[in-house]
Give the backbone structure.
Amino acid sequence: MKKICAIITGFMLLFAALRSLPVAHADEDVPLSQGQTIYVAAYSHIYAGNRELPMLLTVTLSIRNTDIRQPITITKVDYYGTNGEFLRKYADHPVTLRPLESTRYIIPQKDKTGGAGANFLVEWKSGNPANPPLVESIMIGAEGQQGISFTSRGQVITKVNK
């Protein structure tokens, strides 16, 4: 029962965090692109308490096509560890997302290979200029009566503009 309460608390915290995110308005100038490489921070565990004990987390990488007209193609989803070492390739083949479609990749809670400084590199492209996708990681975990959840938004590190 305590674990269920902790999980529910974690989901409530996640919901509250997502509601506080800034909202884009239709009148804002949205730069279109035909592709980008996006860096996304992820945390397979964080440290808590006086003894800095690791709390293992489940990581969900979410990729959402925000364009209402153009499909985009995800060409790379690679996972790296704290020291920058390549750990895993998640996209074995290109994945096309239709307008407003989403996909996700999951690092299980028991997988702590990435460490507290893990990250993803995501590459996408489009045949026509499109709104860039929303790429973020969502971390959630529960231990005893303590639950935690938080998000990390991706950051563009290279662009393809035509």
In short: The chain has a mean pLDDT of 86.
